[in-house]
Amino acid sequence: MEPRTQAVSDLSTRPDGRTPLLQVRDLRVWFELRRWVFSRAGYVRAVDGISFDLYPGEVLAIVGESGSGKSTLIRTLLGLHRPIRGSVSYQGKDLRSFTPQEMRWYRNTQVGYVQQDPYGALPPFMSVRQILEEPMIIGGIRDRRQRLERIREVMEEVKLTPVEEFLFKFPHMLSGGQQQRVVIARAILMRPRLLIADEPVSMLDASIRVEVLKLLQALQRRYHLSVIYVTHDLATATYFADRIIVMYAGKVVEQAPMAELLAHAAHPYTVALLTALPDPDPENAHRLKEVPPGEPPNLIAPPPGCRFHPRCPRIIQGLCDREEPPDFEVGPGHRAACWLYRP
User: Fold this and answer.
1) Which pTM was predicted?
2) Cross-strand partners of 243
């Protein structure tokens, strides 16, 4: 198949005619730096021109190493950062046009957020019941019996049973896995349509990670949730994601269905991430993994051209180090921002 560039406007088209739940278009989130009050030192280009769609019931993984812009991206999706350019639209409406009441509706009932650090995400002075009851009070559910019934229901769903044993415990009385189950329970409490999970298993013991991933998968299927799963660990992303976005230095370098990316990774950075995955075959233990040298670039003054070119083993001199690559289509639903796939 001959590769071709794909315009941003084509991202929302699907053969099945489904409408995206969330649309991100040319999103740029820069943070201003100042030496003195009236002296601008530059900008940190944390997110720099990202576009993608998320469809109802789809699980999208966003993968990249630390400093790639993942956390800034999800905070912008939550409406906590305001982009300098581009847009985030929910059900066709730009978040920037939301009234304060609409933003409260969006954050409290439409999107659930699972944080990376469960202990830091839970108020230490509140019991599990109080933690789970607060979003419903904010959401206007005044009937105390109705609130308690929903709390019991959601605690059973996340396997915090028997419920009476956990209702009046405080976060410090729970294990890390139990704390994360409370965070997940709070995220799905108001039956949102979108769930954003920010490194939800990175701070858990290895023995607990699979249980939490299975729980998220079961909840996604039960409620037909759209999920954005953010991680630096490609191995966990392959567990239940339908599609994957690979970020590097504030940009998307590759997008593809998960199975397609695992079989035919295109961008050299994605290939490097796959190479770094643990190999369970003991016969390969003696082989040294070839990973790109160096560190991610400074986002205050990123390199010209492709931002990965200083570390890329397949650099095209005079092109990769001068011109920024557009998205090229390398397969059905598979795009890579790499000059290796130019027509």
Assistant:
1) 0.89
2) 60, 257
